[in-house]
Amino acid sequence: MIRFLQLTPGDDAAVVRQAIERVVTRGWFILGPELEAFEREFAAACHAEHAAGVGTGTDALAIALRALGIGAGYEVITSPLSAAYSALAIMMAGARPVFADIDPDRLTLDPDAAASAVTPRTAAIMPVHLYGQAADMPAIVDVARRYNLAIVEDCCQAHLASCQGRPVGSDSAAAAYSFYPTKNLGALGDGGALTTNDSALAARAKRLRNGGQTDKYRHDEFGVNSRLDEMQAAILRARLPLLAEWTDRRRALGRRYREALARLDAVVVPPELDAGHVYHLFPVRSGAREAMQAHLQAAGIETLIHYPIPIPRQPALAPERPADCPIATQVCGEIFSLPLYPALTESAVGYVAAAIAAGPRTRR
Fold this sequence. Notes:
The chain has twelve helices and 13 strands. The chain is an alpha/beta fold. It has a seven-stranded mixed sheet with strand order 1-9-8-5-4-2-3, with helices on both faces. The protein is globular.
């Protein structure tokens, strides 16, 4: 059986256990030295000046928007193809998500569609670096400058990714990361962080994550309770030095998949449009998705769909009166993800490709 992913610690098992024991022995579990150290180390890894650890990637997006003063009465343009949490974070901040369709190849926010979605109420653009490939940031930066908009990057699937040689997060007011266990850098529970080069924004984000406190029991503004705890911070510190090696392995497996699937007519592989792709997922498209997934399951290969429903068609978004995004809708009906994680072997990739070659021939 080729499982979709592996969540149990592997080559990092010893350092993860050491990190857990260190926190337990110290007896300090919230807002302590592990978090402070991780924030410094993660900011450096992201080529950012500051990082603020929070409870989830969703909270990182919402707190970043709030720290920028974006809330009720404002709109934020984002992608219709993502986990719904991207849009839910905008709603958590009090703003309205506005969806612009995606580029059919890159599968991220189309800059021209984003420009067409700008209204007098638009305050920010939130590109999502989906599946590990960065959105077209030079074009998005151009749109933001043209209309005087902030950029908050959703990097929840893009740890260490880059766009045209620049690390994701470099061209925005803030960037948000998730440490959900399935991510390229995952915790053993929930976790998130935002990065920024703005010291005032970082300070406000840290207040907002801790109930708006400036001193103990003094709350100067409405905040939330969303703090990356010491246990998860320590685990992430243990894993962070391994992330570059894990990323190289993901890229090597991505290349192997591309070579093996290049001549097949059973699936369409979205192109790699930037060498900074970090292969959080390896999606493919098929006009016979259900049949292909059933065929692969019968061959002992697990697959998942990321994502079956475009965000504008989620019932929770109905009150926001979202515009339809036909390209995203088509992609959501065809896309599914193949196994890809650092412990996967190249022989397993070859087996998956061979199984696809023997599967349904219908293309999109």
